[in-house]
Structure formats: structure tokens, C-alpha cells
Amino acid sequence: TTRERWLLDCLLRRRGAVATRAELRRAVWGASTDDHVLDVTVGRLRRRLGAGGAMIETVPKRGYRVTGDVADQ
Q1: Alpha-carbon distance 23 to 41, whole Å?
Q2: Which of 4, 8, 63, 70 is the most buried (most CB within 10 A)?
Q3: Between the CA of residue 37 and those of 4, 7, 29, 44, what are the distances in Å?
Q4: Mean pLDDT for back-to-back runs of 10 residues, the chain (73 residues)
Q5: What is the structure's pLDDT at 23?
Q6: What's the CA gap between 62 and 19, in Å, rounded?
Q7: What's the farthest any 2 CA atoms get from each other in the chain?
């Protein structure tokens, strides 16, 4: 979906660094949304990416980050 693509783009631009929940909400939804919607969207994105979805790491109480080399996926 478009939102999943925007989410992935935001994560990839910050590769290796934590993208905070607030930053991701602003980048993907523009206005505020709740953390549950963000978590569900990350889960759907991970499933769509298959094995590559493991590169999206949850950083408890902070946000998410992409780990590893995307080219390896």
C-alpha cells in the first residue's frame, strides 16, 4: 500500500538509525495517529517483504530501524 511504501522509505532513509514513532507517524500519516495503527502497518510491511521483513527491527519504547544491508535481501 502507499502507506507501507512511505513507511519503508522513511526507514530506509534512516538506515541503521532509529526512526522514532512520532517521526514515522508524521512521515506516513501527516497528522497524528495512534501507535497501534503504526504497529499494524509495520507488521503488514514485514509480511509483504517476506524474509526481508526481518531487517525491520523494533526498538522498544522508541521506534523502528532497518538493520543489515538491504542488497543482501
Answers
A1: 14
A2: 63
A3: 11, 12, 10, 11
A4: 94 93 92 87 96 95 86 50
A5: 93
A6: 8
A7: 34
Alpha carbons within 13 A on the beta-carbon side of 58: 11
Element (H, E) at 59: strand 56-59
Torsion angle defined by CA atoms of residues 21, 24, 28 and 31, in that order, rounded to the nearest 10 degrees? 60
Collapse the DSSP code of 65 into the 3-class scheme (helix H, G, I; strand E, B; otherwise coil) and give the result.
strand
What does the block give as the cell for 9?
522509505
**Alpha carbon distance 45, 19 (integer Å):** 15
Query: Is residue 59 a contact partner of residue 65, using CB atoms and an 8 Å limit?
Result: yes
66 three-state secondary structure:
strand
For cell 503504526, the residue is: 38
